[in-house]
Structure formats: C-alpha cells, structure tokens
Design a protein that fits this description.
mainly beta, 10-stranded antiparallel beta sheet, globular
C-alpha cells in the first residue's frame, strides 16, 4: 500500500526547484470586485461580489475575498469564499495547468500554497484528480495533504501512463 501511495505522490509532484523560477510570482496581483472595503494604512481589505484576483497565469474567482498584507505592504494571504471559489494556475516547470474548486480557498503568498476547504477538488490537465473535505497544496513542490470532512472521504484518481509500442 505504501508503494502505491508513494507512486501516486511521485506522479503528482511538480518538480520545481525554487518559487523564484515561477514567472507568475514576479507579476503584480490585480483584484477587482463589485464592492471594496479597505484600510488605507495597512492596504488590507475585502472585496465582495463577483471578485477576480489575477497574478500571471494564476486566477482566483468567487463571491468574497479578504486580502491581508504585512507592515511592509507585502501580500501575506488571500482568503476567498463562494459557491464555489475557483482557482487555476499554469505550473511553470511542467507547463501543467491545475484547477481547483472549494467553498473557501486560502492562498498563502509567501509560501506559495493554497488550502481548499469544503467540497475541495483539485484537477490537472494531465488527468490527475483529488477530492476531499480539505486539501493543502504546495504550488512550488506539488506536495499535498488531503483530509476527509464528515462523510466526504479522500478520493484520488489518475490516468495510467500511455502504453509504449
């Protein structure tokens, strides 16, 4: 059993050496929505109503977003909620695109991680899929952790490698 879990995790890993190689992280973050409430001194605030957050190929959409910055005005996190919140990103090292949905998605900018909570689903255009109550995913390494929530167990699906001739 440990070999099959290791095999799956190995197949799911993204082989990124450093976050600085990700061109998305060099781009500014743009956020828009129907309503904004913000503190001018901290530059932290919340958007409501059909918000969109974009940074390079990374896109986050939902109904409400909370933006948190540190004292140097550097982005710390984006906490998004909705029915559902949607996230997508092209991984620079593999050119694989991942898509995620959940009731709440937290993007931790400095760690380059996302946490999906409530009806969490993460898929890739390479045929990988995971569903769980909660999924934590490291965008740098591809490592993830998934947990059940209530009766929703962790479900993993991946496509076998194409047969060679």
């Amino acid at each position: 059993m440990h070999k099959s879990i290791f095999l799956f995790i190995s197949l799911f890993l993204i082989h990124a050496a450093h976050a600085t190689q990700d061109p998305d992280l060099q781009q500014s973050i743009q956020i828009s929505g129907d309503f904004l409430q913000m503190n001018v001194h901290t530059a932290s605030g919340s958007y409501q109503g059909n918000f969109v957050a974009i940074q390079g190929s990374m896109r986050l959409t939902g109904n409400k977003v909370q933006v948190n910055q540190d004292k140097n005005k550097q982005l710390v996190s984006i906490i998004a909620s909705g029915n559902p919140v949607k996230f997508s990103k092209k991984i620079a090292t593999t050119q694989e695109t991942i898509q995620a949905t959940a009731n709440q998605i937290t993007y931790q900018a400095q760690q380059n991680k996302i946490t999906l909570e409530g009806n969490a689903a993460l898929t890739s255009d390479a045929g990988k899929q995971i569903k769980a109550g909660k999924i934590s995913y490291d965008l740098n390494t591809g490592n993830f952790q998934a947990e059940r929530s209530g009766t929703q167990r962790v479900h993993i699906q991946f496509q076998p490698a194409p047969a060679s001739h």
